[in-house]
Amino acid sequence: MVSRKIFAANIVGSTTTHVDRSIAFLWFYRQTAEYADRTAAELAQDLHDEDFSKPRVSRLHKELVNSRYTVKGGRPKSFKISLANVGGLDAKYDSLLGHIEVPETGSVLPVEWVRDTRRYVEDLIKQINGSFDFGFYDASAVLMRRLVESLIIEIYIRQKRGAEIRENSTFKRLEFLIGYVCKDQNVHLSRNSNGDMNAIKKLGDTAAHDRTYITHESDITDLKQRYRRLIKELLTESGVVK
Question: Is the pLDDT reported for residue 102 higher than 80?
Answer without folding.
Answer: no
